[in-house]
Every structure is written in structure tokens, then in C-alpha cells.
Amino acid sequence: MSAYSSLFPIFQRHRALFGLVGTALFSSPLSAADWPPASWTETTPAFHIAGPIYYVGGRELAAYLIHDEGCDVLVNVGMEDNSALVQQSIYSLGFQPNDIDTILITQAHMDHAGGAENISQASGAVVAGGAADVELMQRGGLQDYVFGDDLPFTAVSNTKALNHGDEVQCGDHTLTTIATPGHTPGGSSWRLRFPVENDGKSVMKTALLAGSVSVLSDAQLIDNEHYPQVVSDFRSTYQRFEQEQFDYFLPDHLIFIDPRNGEAPKPAWFENQEALAKILQRSKKQLEKKLAEEAG
Q1: For residue 127, which phi and psi values (nearest 5 degrees)?
Q2: Roughly how many angstroms between the first and final C-alpha of the chain, as a whole number?
Q3: Mean pLDDT of residues grouped by 10 in the chain (296 residues)?
Q4: Contact, 194 vs 51, CB < 8 A?
Q5: What pLDDT was estimated at residue 23?
Q6: Which CATH number fits domain 5-295: 3.40.50.720, 3.60.15.10, 3.50.50.60, 3.10.110.10?
């Protein structure tokens, strides 16, 4: 039985954490053996996506390595148990986990930031994200605006807060921060432009490393003393995402791009310009439904 099985009663109370993810990954009736879902800690071979981007995550919880000479940036880790998985994936590509300079976190929940401290301690990397999420990571997930103290993870000690528009440099590549709060108060995404060779010519491509916009049904949206601007944050995030033009979509959960045909993840999954629009449409419906329920 998983070390996380003791958290199963909490998962039952907060099943909405998973949104589409929970609906697709779990069958009823549920038991403690279902927590966490097997795919969350399942390994899958690491591979090159495009340009400086490599996939180093698991079968469901995504992690991406941005590699350039003398610099490595890791985007998300997964749960604490996933830190070894991610490190082994990096090794398998011929890179060194100790070369990671920065760990970027799209959302400060245990399924994405849970393993950040492990890799930060091993590599000396700074863990960066939106200011409110950095504070949440420093608290180890405690005082979350939805989950309270129910879903803790190892607190992160070496951190850096990023604002909208801040740039993270990795060799010749620049990741530009896009503030995408709502799912978490400091939710963040990153835009990365890079050249690829096409018929002997260098063509610029754009990747969007996207954070979640799921509206948790356990969240209080109206008069939330812990996060009073939650609704306006969601709406500003929708607007920012709708302005993005990209060639590669890199979500923090692979289920958003998984064709569910039993195949392992592969580069073609990420050449997806339609998934984000569907995700935003679903989130907007979730938001309006939740607001109507709270308003009575």
C-alpha cells in the first residue's frame, strides 16, 4: 500500500482537486488502494520534445527539462515520491540532475511541488513560482485556500518569487513568466521561444508550459477571506491564456493531451493547439456554475 494511502479520506473529501483528472483516472467505488492513482508514480521513458525541451516526468504528472550548455531548468517535479523518477529520467538523457539551476513550479500543490525540496537540496537549485505560491511552498502546502492543512508536502527552503513578465534565463533561451492565478493564488505558466531546423532553415517556435485553471468545487469563490480576488484572478488568467500563440502545449497533467489509446507519451502529443481552448471552456463553465451555486 502506498505511503500516501493514509491521505485517502482527505482525497475523498477533496475529490474535486482532480477535476477532469479525477473523473478520468478513477473508477467507482474507490478505496485507499486507488490513492494515489498508479499513473501518478508510474515511470515512462524520457524523451526529447523539441528544441531545448525534454520530457522527464511520469505517466501522468508532467515534468519538463529545459537544457542548454551550462544551464538546466526543471519545470515541475510531481509528488515527493516522483523526485527519484525525475532524476533518473534526467540521467537517462545523458544529463546531470545536479546541473539544475532553477525549478519552476506551475502550482504549489503536492502533486507538482511535492518533490521540489528533494531536488533543490540535491542540486542547489532555487525553486521559483508566483509570489503567493512561493509562500505556500515555504509553508509546505499548509494554509491552502481550498485544502487548508489537509495536503501537506515537504516545505521548500530555497525560493524565488516571480512576477508576470519576469524572465528566467537558461543559456541562450528565455522563459517568460505568465501569471496564471486562480487554481492557486500564485499559479504561473511560462512561454519559451526557440529555433528549430525546417528544410534547412531556422524557424522560431513557441512552447507554452501551462499551469492549471481547474476550478475546485471545494473552493469558496464569493467572500473568500483567504483569497478575496479568486474570481477576478481566474478571469484575468483566461484572458492571458487566450492571447497566447504557441506551437507546443506542455500541461502539468498529461491527461489534458493524452489521446487515451494506451500508448506511452511521445513528442507528437505536445504539438497540440486545441487542448487549451477546451480546458478554458471547461474552466469557465466550472466557474460560473460554482458562482451560481454559492449565490443561491
Answers
A1: -100, 120
A2: 42
A3: 51 50 44 66 96 97 95 96 96 97 97 97 97 98 93 96 98 97 98 92 96 90 96 98 98 91 92 96 95 93
A4: yes
A5: 45
A6: 3.60.15.10
CA 54, CA 75: separation in Å to the nearest integer?
A: 10
- Dihedrals φ, ψ of 136, to 5°? -65, -40
Residues 105, 112 contacting (CB under 8 angstroms): yes
Read out DSSP for the chain?
A: --TTGGGHHHHHHTGGGGTHHHHHH--SS--GGGSS-GGGT-----EEEETTEEE-S-SSB--EEEEETTEEEEE---STTHHHHHHHHHHHTT--GGGEEEEE-SS-SHHHHTTHHHHHHHH-PEEEEEHHHHHHHHTTTTTBTTTBTSS--PPP-SEEEE-TT-EEEETTEEEEEEE--SSSTT-EEEEEEEEEEETTEEEEEEEEEE------TT---SS-TT-TTHHHHHHHHHHHHHT---SEEEESBGGGT---SSPPP-GGGG--SSHHHHHHHHHHHHHHHHHHHHH-
- Dist. CA 135–CA 186, nearest whole Å: 9
CA distance 94 to 213: 34
Residue 36 preceded by cis peptide, ω within 30: yes
C-beta atoms surrounding 284 within 10 Å: 15
CA 260 – CA 130 distance, rounded (Å): 32
Task: Write down the domain spans for the chain.
Answer: 5-295
Q: Which amino acid is at 282?
A: R
Contact (Cβ atoms closer than 8 angstroms) between residue 180 and residue 240: yes
Q: What is the pLDDT of residue 24?
A: 45
pLDDT at 200: 85
